[in-house]
Queue: 2 jobs
Job 1
Amino acid sequence: MHQNPQHPAKPFDIIVVGAGIIGLATAYRAYKQGHNVMVIERNSRPTGASIQNFGHACFTGQADELQAMVAKSREGWISAAQDAGFWAAQPGTLIPATSDVEMSVLEQFANHRGQEQVTLLSPSEVEQRLGHQRLKPVGGALLPLDMRVNPREAAATLAQWLEAQGVTFQWNTTLRSTADGVVDTSRGQWEAQRVVLCPGVNLSYLLPDLAQAEGVRSCTLSMALVERPDHIASDFCMLTGTSLARYDGFSAMASVPELRQELQQREPELVECIANLMVTAIPEGLLVGDSHDYHDSPTPFISEETASLLQSKAAAYLGVDKLRVKQRWQGVYADSPSTNLVVHRPDAKTVVAVVASGIGMTLSFGLAEHILDQF
Ligand SMILES: Cc1cc2nc3c(=O)[nH]c(=O)nc-3n(C[C@H](O)[C@H](O)[C@H](O)COP(=O)(O)OP(=O)(O)OC[C@H]3O[C@@H](n4cnc5c(N)ncnc54)[C@H](O)[C@@H]3O)c2cc1C
């Protein structure tokens, strides 16, 4: 059994497995509570869903039941960004409405949540925020409380900062199994009073029976980094009509069934690839996506048809004929048709936590608090 290098006679208070944003947020919260923390990660740096995404903390669009958790997450992102020194902006999320039905959903949502969360915009205000007049929106909304981070920076910088504060990181080390505070890894055993497993989509390999019971599968998404046109703001963040039909907060509104019918007629190709057409800006350019494909063993191949479709639809919103693609990738996250969140306690010293939907950046620091409250 390896010893805690900082207190050889004493086991760690908490071992966190997985240096994605859920594991790192948990390590951050535990460190801030004064605990002696170790993080075990099978890679040499974060490479999972937490760096593949839009860096969009979409607090407002989440279901009413999740609002308490996302408020804590928002506070956690602000605090971690200040401590670790990574970019976390609050430009708000722009949602241009391109039809009366989309505008009705936004109006209903504004009535439901109130002005602090949803600011309705006139067509000219949307054009001003888009930086062009080609889209001809009927109106739109701004969600001012949502936040943005750069996913290529945030997790890695947070890990470096935690390591500099004395949190022990055991990189290139794979967890094989754990029970009653003892973790068995590819580099031997460690012990802690509490163990938190945050393996993301790898839950299916680590704990296949739990993954099966919770319906956890992979969701693959077609993503691209494109050059940012000059008229698009450097902290730009946009959701569209497909997003209104997707996120639980919006989709609870009365006009969403009508919106779904409209999308089916107006944008059948987007509906076919289960698109959530959205764009966010990072220093390297604009992140454009996404489509959704669900499978327990996903295909590694990116459909050029789907990728081109998403880029041409995004180009129309951005007021350009074509976008110059710099990178493409297939993002993967854990999904379940039956739950957004798997929080399981196999024994008194162990918690397993997986976000089973595309909202892990949004929930992260709020979920971390919920995880630590389980003990
Ligand atoms: C394309 C895309 C777009 C998205 N957009 C958004 C968005 O805009 N907003 C939002 O809120 N969410 C978004 N998401 C979802 C979000 O990225 C995920 O929900 C979140 O990153 C999950 O974090 P995680 O820490 O659970 O997983 P991961 O980041 O995948 O981290 C899990 C870590 O555990 C490690 N691990 C696994 N098994 C072991 C083991 N046995 N031993 C050691 N280490 C192990 C892995 O190596 C990995 O580093 C998106 C996801 C994708 C892919």
Job 2
Amino acid sequence: MKCYCLNKFLTPLKKQEIDTPTPSGEEVLLKIKASGICHSDIHFWEGYYDIGEDKKLELKDRGIKLPMILGHEIVGTIVLKGSDVIDLEIGDNCIVYPWIGCGNCESCNISQENYCVNPRYLGIQRSGGFAEYVLVPSYKYLIDIKNNNPVTTAQYACSGLTTYSAIKKIDQSIYTKKPIVIFGAGGLGLTAISILKALNSFGVLVVEKDESKRKAALKAGALDVFDLFDENLESKLLEYNNGNKYKAVIDLIGNNLTSRISFNVLDKFSTLVIVGMFGGLSSWPIALIPMKAIKIIGSYVGNLNEFYELMDLVIKNKITPTPVQAYHFDRINEAMDDLRTGNVIGRAVLVHDS
Ligand SMILES: [Zn+2]
Ligand SMILES: [Zn+2]
């Protein structure tokens, strides 16, 4: 089969021909129809995360071995299945839950395999979606997408699931009754707006530096949008809320600036959910955290149960998919470049010949 392989960090993905895997037991082989490209793919391509003070978290020290086939937002058609596969048939179009754990660690034992200590994530530790086919370790990680469009559905495996899990970390009584603030209107931000609508939220205020992305957020249904680089941003946010601070903020960017502003607009008994990993350090006035009983929580992708809940909403057409910028599979390096340089509105998705 054809694949695009990362052989060396910071170099273009290389087209290669490798053996197509054969499934056995609970395994399933999908012919890929659509593969989303995620910001994490850019981090993996670069080979590190910025953790502040010029320090880097090197992926090679975290068990990530090259060569690797990236890509973790996958929709494909079942072409072969092992003898223990039930419920699914050849020809079904399925979305893949890629955050597969070891099955034995503390996180896996409490159904939080997305925090596994020895993960088998597709597109990170195991071959992912930048290929013609993908081998999924068990049918349990597949959901039939019925009549949904594979190209607009792939985003739910990471972007959609990540935002859904972040939203679920906020009390329902907050987001259904009061506006919440979201930093970032890339693919995740737009998806968050749409999911919050499906969950009957009061509404979302979006902070974003890029004007075209702010427009996209308004079009997706944000109550209002604000420029991240506006020097009066904090006062404008409070002005919108009649001078009040906010009970919940989701930071989808996660850098020095957004973490500082997020904190400054938090009210008593509020929740800050940090999702973005653009890096750096934050300097919060520590005394205010206990004084205001602020809850700061991180969120990384989502668990399998959350994926089932989210896909139930998707299949019932409760969520408007985030706009997609589609690229033919062979334009993968161009798509990665566009995403890295901020030139994608919505989600970048690779589309395969049918
Ligand atoms: Zn991702
Ligand atoms: Zn585990």
